[in-house]
Design brief:
This protein is an alpha+beta fold. The strands form two sheets. A four-stranded antiparallel β-sheet has the order 1-2-3-4. The protein has a three-stranded antiparallel β-sheet with strand order 5-7-6. The longest helix is centred in the middle third of the chain and has 14 residues. The radius of gyration is 15 Å and the shape is globular. About 30% of the residues are buried.
């Protein structure tokens, strides 16, 4: 049975859940667009400003999200975001991103969530633009930089 997007939650990755989170993968044609979750979790343990969570639909792990959270600089960067291939197209990504945006809005001085994506045929551009991110015109190490305004109205005005 498929859980509704309303049942999506963000949970800490624990010793009991890390294997399940690391086993989640995107489809083969999407693999060049996001690092494996095991790599992201390892990087997070060496970056004090990393904030990461597993994405759950009900009791089923379906994805992973990681922020670079720097309240001193008031910068919030969506570093990694993935929904497992078999869980895509069910509304979990949008619901999870809603929760991430809600989290960031509660951080000091948060007026935007910034991210980037690798351009390409199977990349996440349409998802991010459909959510309300705008391309800034910047390219960083081959990735297109995008920004989601969080000021009054922010992501709530997306179509």
């Amino acid at each position: 049975m498929t859980e509704s997007p309303d049942a999506v939650s963000l949970r800490e990755v624990t010793a009991e859940t890390v294997r399940a989170i690391c086993s989640l993968e995107v489809s083969p044609e999407q693999r060049g667009y996001v690092a494996p979750n095991a790599v992201s979790i390892a990087q997070a343990h060496f970056e004090p400003r990393a904030w990461f969570r597993a994405v759950y639909a009900g009791e089923q792990p379906v994805g992973f999200v990681m922020l670079h959270d720097d309240p001193e600089k008031r910068e919030y960067y969506l570093w990694r975001f993935m929904i497992g291939a078999e869980h895509q197209g069910k509304g979990y990504g949008r619901a999870a991103l809603d929760l991430v945006v809600e989290h960031v809005r509660g951080r000091p001085g948060a007026d935007a969530l910034v991210s980037s994506y690798v351009p390409g045929e199977h990349g996440p551009r349409d998802f991010y633009v459909g959510y309300g991110f705008v391309e800034t015109g910047e390219v960083d190490e081959g990735e297109v930089v995008i920004r989601l305004p969080l000021a009054a109205g922010g992501a709530d005005n997306r179509t």
